[in-house]
Specification:
With about 325 residues, the protein is α+β, with helices and mostly antiparallel strands. It is about 55% helix and about 10% strand. A six-stranded antiparallel β-sheet has the order 3-2-1-6-5-4.
Length: about 325
């Protein structure tokens, strides 16, 4: 259905425009040897021939990002084929982290498109009585490879999204990455399975995801924030959760991020959940986040020692933090 496809890709283009604070974003897919516009935040040419005479065609054919004045054209491609391009209109030069984020989005979508097409082809072959064992084995090998690639590209996308969040939030070190790595080590110490550990790692990376939707000027300001800016910051986590809900494979991390500010004794936010009713992932990320913040330099204070941070957190076990997670933390960081 073309209208549904247009709505999906326009939503993606809108998210990219908002995250990067650019003038416009256009998404083109390859259809019958042309690049056709399938999603846009503004006005754009409806199609391009696939040849090197346009920036769009050049990026598509060479599978390389093309930069030209106020345009950045990112190819959407995977191991099997090129599927389209993402065009960014920007008045200022884009941060490298932002370009890499869009490149990871492009590869992820191209792989998803290729996987869906291969699944459709496989269904046709399975029900075709003339299909050979060799054909089925070939399609199975393609599916296996694409699913493996998709998992790798999903992780790459999440990591690039986290780098972009840290860049916009002007963290001097990758706070999100440090939190996520520590959360993963705690998961291993607690013996959690691989899927749960991966989701908690992603949630650790994306705990500040809402900041990607805020204007960079807010973080650059050293003066007093306006009431509107303050409201934007207070609501940034809601915007981040909304963004994640639109990314299928990340929807499962939403509860971990939503309930990260709960306290073990039930006095936290947003719902005052208590003890075991707080998702385990939220309890783990909360501890990892607090520990990483305490043991990192901030503009207004120096980092605490490991011993001092652990002592403070042990005193708050049972009130602020889950004692089981605190025990695992102390074993991991010693």
């Amino acid at each position: 259905d073309e209208s549904a496809e247009h709505a999906i890709y326009t939503s993606i283009a809108e998210s990219i425009k908002q995250m990067l604070e650019i003038e416009a974003c256009h998404i083109y897919l390859e259809k019958e040897n042309k690049l056709e516009l399938v999603g846009t935040t503004g006005s754009a040419d409806q199609e391009y021939l696939i040849n090197a005479s346009s920036l769009q065609g050049k990026a598509f054919l060479n599978k390389e990002t093309v930069f030209d004045k106020n345009l950045v054209v990112v190819p959407m491609y995977c191991n099997i084929k090129s599927t389209g391009v993402i065009v960014l209109e920007c008045s200022n030069e884009l941060n490298e982290e932002y370009v890499e984020l869009v490149e990871s989005i492009a590869v992820l979508f191209a792989t998803s498109v290729a996987l869906q097409k291969t699944i459709d082809d496989a269904n046709v072959i399975i029900y075709d009585e003339h299909s050979t064992v060799g054909t089925l084995q070939h399609v199975r090998a393609e599916l296996t490879a694409l699913i493996g690639d998709l998992c790798d590209y999903q992780q790459s996308f999440v990591e690039h999204l986290a780098y972009a969040v840290d860049t916009k939030g002007q963290y001097r070190v990758s706070h999100s990455k440090n939190t996520a790595k520590l959360a993963r080590e705690i998961c291993h110490k607690l013996g959690l399975n691989e899927k749960t550990t991966d989701l908690i790692y992603y949630a650790g990376l994306l705990q500040n995801i809402g900041k990607i939707t805020l204007p960079e000027a807010i973080f650059a300001s050293s003066g007093k924030l306006s009431p509107e800016e303050l409201k934007q910051i207070q609501e940034h986590s809601n915007a981040g959760v909304h963004l994640l809900m639109n990314i299928n494979f990340l929807s499962e991390v939403v509860p971990y991020i939503t309930y990260q500010k709960e306290r073990y004794d039930g006095s936290g936010k947003p719902e005052g959940l208590k003890g075991q009713s707080i998702p385990f992932g939220s309890r783990i990320i909360a501890v990892a986040d607090a520990y990483c913040a305490m043991t990192s330099d901030r503009p207004y204070r120096k980092a605490m020692s490991v011993e001092k941070a652990l002592d403070i957190m042990k005193l708050e076990a049972g009130s602020k933090w889950d004692p089981v997670v605190i025990n695992a933390l102390s074993e991991v960081v010693k």
